[in-house]
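Protein 1 of 2
SEQ + STRUCT:
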Amino acid sequence: MSNGPGRQGQFSYAQKNHIESFMPAFCAQLDAGVNGLALTKWKQETANDILASPLFAGKLDVSNNSQKAWHEIPFSRLTEWRELFRFIGQNSYSIPALHRLLANAEKEGWSAEKILEICQLAKAGKYTARNFTEYEIYLTILLYELGGGAAVHAMNHSIFALPCRNTIQPYRQQSKLIPTVGSLRFADVSQNISTLFGSHPSREAESDDSPSTKFGHTLSMDELAADPRIDFMPETDEMGGRGDLRAVEAAVAAVKAGKVHVSHEVCVGAISHLYGTNYGAKPIYMGPTCKKGPWQDSVRLMEVIIAAWKRSPDGEAKHGPLLSISTDGDHKRRLALFVLCMQNEILPKNPLYPFVRNLPGLNLRVGKDNITHDGDPKHIFKRNRGLLSSSEGIIVKERLPNHDWSKTSIHNLLHPSDGQHVSEAIKLMLCIIDIAKLDSEDFDPSEAEFEALCLLGEAYNALLQPFINVELSLSEQIQSLVTASHLFCALYVQHGTSFMSNQLYADMQSMFKNAVLMVSKTRLINGELKVYICLLGDDVLEALFGRCRITGGHSPNCSIGVLRDRLGSAMNLDYVYERYPELERHPPRLTMIHKRHVDHLCPSHFKRELRTNSCDLESCWAAAVKAAELILASYGVRMNMSFSQRFQNKDTDPSQPMGGKYPAISGGIDRSMANLKTSSSDDEELINPDTINFANLVAGVDMDAMIESKNLSDAAFAATPRSLFAQIDAAGKVAHKKSILRTFFAMTQDGCTSHDRLQRVRGFTVGGKTWNRDESDENVCSATHFQLGNLFTTLLCHNGTHLGLAVVKSTLIKRNAAGSKSSSISAIPRAELHLPSASYSISGQILSLVPLVSSQPDVLFAWDGEFISFSLKKKKSSGEEINHKRNLQITVSSQLIGCDIQQQAREISASDFRVPDSGIYASPIANTVIETSIRDRNACRICGKAVKGPDRQHHVGEHILKAMRGVPEASIKVPSRSQRPTHVAHAEGPVVSPSRTRRQTRNARPPTLS
């Protein structure tokens, strides 16, 4: 055997191959020889003779060596694998994409020696496996949307070697949404539908849904907070309308005059699938709003969105019809939905009639194409919690369960200040449900509070179970919701608004009605489709808003121009989270279930029968009504008639329990919304759906005319040359339109003198507002309020002897005294500036004024464009002095500012001030009130000596110690009684003798002066 390098005592590869090829032929030859020998000489020779044969002995030696080689081959390969494992273990953090490298090795059938060679190349950076999996691609998309290109670059060059940005582009859908600015445009909504619901080949190939599958959809409407900033859209050359520099100047003038204002919210309309997959909200409309318009505008907006979905080839024709419109508790949108979704009654010719004809008490009014409105479950849960935590409480069975709660106990138990916490709202309702499980043997039967809470718990249990119990089937969910509808109806009939506000009751009944009709409408599409109760409402839109905010990082709010880009990123996040839900972190405040192992309820959690064919609405309705009557009877609620008798009247049902009057359109105060951030409710008169002419509301919405107008506008826009730059002067100087908008609409900011470089160079800052100011009232104007950026005059003291007048530009306003940690504000009512009790402080920079020689006697000074600054002298290590200039910032009380100080002085004084020609004058302030207010020396009340602020406590302490030890003082001017306690320098703090202990000091009487 030849011994190769590093393999002492082993066969070479050539010998191994020779032995492996020689062994089969040799064994066959050996067998033939042995058999022939046995046949010819078996009588003459014994076994010992055969074994002693030289020929057999030689062949036997060869056979033994061959078997030895066969045993040594696996051991050599084991050594190679051992070396490979040792290398991987020592360099596991240095081999990029090791998991993909091993996947290639298994696929290609590499030997251990080749795998080791490839690993060494990968460690040296000469090889990277690029067989990316779907999980890695979508994980990189998630990184890109949340962290940007820098995060993708970092992970691409890490040991994980995730795909680069160019690799994920074919899988990442770049949605270019069109915001609606100015008038409502049908074409904008239709274009957004085609963008989001149109064909996307890379994703359609991965989708499990059949292209021909159609299902129901819901339209969600809500507002999102945005920065009140004007944006420029280069795709359409718009700023609330197309125009040049003159249009910008006109818009700025209109804003300053108060004719128009910059919106601080964006209205978003989104459509979502009522299906088990891909059910995220897709925004098809976004437009600025101020919530000041009438409810008729909301009707027209929703009518345009519905028509665009119905007409678009990528809308109803491809995916399915709109079945419902969901929203939160906004009062104006509630009126709009009531008018839009209560136009017609379900009659025998309606395809829904066979499913709902035997459901007594179900409100049969629907909108065009049987569309209905829906209330959001999470908002309803939060508003029920707000109702419980309100000071009025709720009345159940003629009892007020929380009548003796103090404000402290309400705060500790219900946390009324945090009205947005869904988990806490559900936890409170579950606690009320659990009250019925208590042992009531020791309770006083005369007290009905326990029964009232148990009855309320039964109603809450029927309301919550369909949304938090994943073990219910569709029939059980519908039965529970119908039971809750009748229980709340009975309590509302008995107690009215003392039990629940009109608005909350109407939203709950709308949710119950929509859930029942959703089953029948889905059955018309396809009886095999499932109905997911958890997808009802606008929670999918709230999730979309949350993803828009997290893509903004530390700047969650944005303008409408930035919002459209964030919505496109949110669409990609939605697609990734839909395929890999474990990657999404759900906010704890929005969790709708109290189980630790489930963060968020989604369609995949419901495993029972949810197909519409399995739900018999008539049997579910009858069982639910019977269950509600049994619950009411068990707790002694007396009803003058049964539900069937009450609902025999056509105009009486849970939606109009009093007969003919709908609580949904009540103008009363909704006390369930007290702790939620919603717009204030205006006084709205009651609306009867039979008296509304819906055709008049949408008469001005001509879809064909809007499409034709859009085509003409696009043709004219395409023929007109456009540019990102606009001419700003006669000399032909141009500037970018975004910079023009930011500069012209900076109402109170001087970007040229700002300390923020981005503010000076680009006209805006990264973090939005520079200071954390309180939002001012929208009615603030310069005539009634002193605002940031306004000029004011104040008096300044020079060297403690002379007084000067300074003109200052305000840069900061605080509500409390100077130096406090109060939040800043942007305006002060002028009537409160000089009040004695005013606690405002104003900071600013002093304008640099130069004397002006002019023929106009009223103009004495001119501003040279600079601010007063002072020099700071510092020394280098070499001893040379360096001057650094800094702007002078002063802070004064609001009582010492004004623009008409001299006029007030003329009214007080008998004669005018005599001012030199230069306009600069000095006035002595000795022995005046001004001297006392600006000097930091106050006279001691004991001896009359002027003492500085930091020395007052020490000075008064000397008087106290001398009085305690009986040391006479000749300079005492204020007589004191022996029993009068001495207070230290106007409550500056007590002086404690070091010889006393803490207990002696606490128990001792105050020292007195002798």
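Protein 2 of 2
SEQ + STRUCT:
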Amino acid sequence: MNGGPIIAIQVDNEYGQDPGAGYFEDLEAIYRNKDTGLDLPLTYNDPGMGRSFINGTGAVDLYGFDAYPNRYDCAHPDIWKPVPENYHEYHLEVNSWQPLYIPEYQGGSPQAWGPNTPDYTGCYALTGPAFESVFHRQLWADNVKLLNYYPLYGGTSWGNIPYHGVYTSYDWGAAISEPRTLGTKYTELKLQGLFLRSSPEFYKTDVVANSTEPDLLGSISTVGNTSLTFVTLLRNPDTEAGFWIVRQKDSTSTAVSRFKLTVTSSLSGDRKMQIPQIAPAITLNGRESKVIVTDYLFGTSRALYSTASVLFAGTIDGRDVLFLYGDSEQEHEAALNLNGSPTVTNLTTPLIKIQQSSLSSSGSISIITFAKGIKGLHTVHSSRERLVLFADTKTAGTFWSPAIADPNDPHGNFWSIGTNETVLVGGPYLVRTAKITKGLLELTGDFDVTHRPSASVEGNRGPEGRKTLTIIAPQSVTKASWNGKPLDFEGSFVESACRIAGLPEDGFATGNATSFIEGIPDLSANEWKYADSLPEIREDWDDSQWVVANHTSTNVLFPMWYGDGRVLYGCDYGFCEGAVVWRGHFNETGVEKSVNLSINGGQGFAASVWLNSVFLNTSFGNSSNSANNVNETDQLFVFPEDALKKGQDNVITVLQDNMGLNENWYTQDQMKSPRGIRGFQLNPSGNFSEWRVQGKVGGYKNFPDKHRGVMNEGGFFGERKGWHLPNFDTSSWRTRNISSGLPDLKAGVGFFVTTFDLDIPTGFDIPMSINFEDLDYFQNRSVGTEEYKPYRAIFFVNGWMMGKVIGNLGPQVRFPVHEGILDYQGANTLAVVVWAMTPNVTISPQVRLRVDGVFQGGILNIRKSNPGWSAEGRE
């Protein structure tokens, strides 16, 4: 493999060089074997600045390290950490001959099981657009040239979770939310990404100096306040293009800074000049960063400077285009040559003024000032040679610049590799594709109609609330379409800088989300079928076909705490995912009064214990602090009077939840977690004659549902039978609404199944979620922890395990379920396994299907693959 969009291969992630270098070297030998056909640099992600694999055994071609500088306190998103200021120095010290690479930079924050854990809205705020503005541009100031955000999209940990430190949602507060919606974080990333794509001179820069150095100490002149501003200068050594990255000295500050900046420019004969020249000042809001450019290339033209931000710079149809933007409550200024005969001669607002200046050594230059109060998009200058636009930040955020790709080029959508051709489209929630064929511009994308018509954006709505698009395209374009519907404009792009195109009424929904919400079935009114899913505690239960748990050795590094030499770790017997049921047999001799069990299930686990058919207690792996959820408990279970069968075989049944395994980090083999029973002892004495264990049917290798994969099922009885799969016949089951909970308020496990139909029209992207509304107290903190409901649930949608609910921990109560898992035009099966962990407590799950957004456009023809029940391989 040589060429194309794949530029490197990461050998492994966060793996320690000592003592793991030999393993790394073995992997590299495989990648570098000539038979693989790979000709790519090998990379590595160091968990912090640990200097691993830069030199020595296993050294990679390109070293990188990860960073989570604002950490994880999503309960207090307004409390920031300062931006790190040592990345550039570290890079010069350890691998200056390579580009500075950060393969995993904070794009959100993970959260553990509760209690008192905030949901991911706090993480979104902690790492929101202000964080992106300051911390991302500090990376640019450090001269980072290869960067990956983790995560851009977190998504859902469907199935049983492989890592115990997080819950089902892997949203993280990422730029793209779990149900795939786009918000202000994505918009800020888009603005940054378009600037970087538009600025090839930024790809090669030297760090010239920053405000800690004498060369730049005098470059900041305050306006009306003490000096709050910090600046770093990067310059392209070949073209002299300058990138002045400014932020608050105290990056956590919310104060406003107003200043002027002394810069040098090759276009001005390298003489110093203070900018802005006419506008009162450059303004930085608290927790804001900007890039001020000098000698900046757009197309074949150069701007002397701009204190306004750059959205797009490049060429469209042979015309140099510069699209600037800025906060409407701030002043901005740019200086550039506006040669050419303008086709637009009247500015659309008096808040934009153009004055001539002799700043340039090569002739007259135009200084453009943008006063406070500018909203919407404005054409500053339009000629056949160049186009200059300005918009407020909110309007700029609605613009997209899709690649115009050659359909015959497999790399056609990769900028600079397959194409450099684009158009600008403002207004829609999302532009998916753009294509130009014989004067027709074909656009596909989405409009957000969730809250229509209230969610108006400047420049995004025409007369009488009609949706519009703003398009900048080649003059050869004479017509356009949106999702196959013709747009309502005529003419070309010769006379006007851009065209306003209205969507035809028959091509756009006139309603809003209400009509879709009203059509969603009310699951509380559905018919639910119920069956007991813990028959293993019955007196007559036969476990003779189960696996005998008689191992006396293990590959797990963590030893048994106590017992008789037998190892009771689920993974050793092939049961590593989800619930596992253990049954320990002993003959009653008259002395057994209790049993000690040490149970390990990972953070936030639980295990319920029965003696014969009598419930003893549940052991909970949690505390009052989400940062201190425990992996393991050691507990005494006392036998009630008359629960033992005198002189006969008695059975201790343990239903245990496996929350997932540990991660390795620098230490090897931590993932070999001792999930299971780490200690067992009858008190004051006694011996277990036999232990048997059952988890997921088929274990590691022989599980029957290969389509949904190894993580989809656990060891609850109903899972082993396949009750969660579509088309399983529940007609003989009793009818019982899930809100009624388990019969007789008993501790145990029940299986609830219902079916419902959806009839969502095509051409819409409508995220939906399953909500457990009886647990809304995790959202509003309306009750104390003593009132949290002691139950767990897992649920399956059309056979896919889509969520784990913990009623006494939380925090997750809303579970997005994507189209394709849900059949939007057909029948659906919802199965919920309810585990009541304490008797005589009312458990009343309130399960609802909710609409989380309505977007017109969407991805058409979502493939569904939800195989139904089969007896093959089932118990």
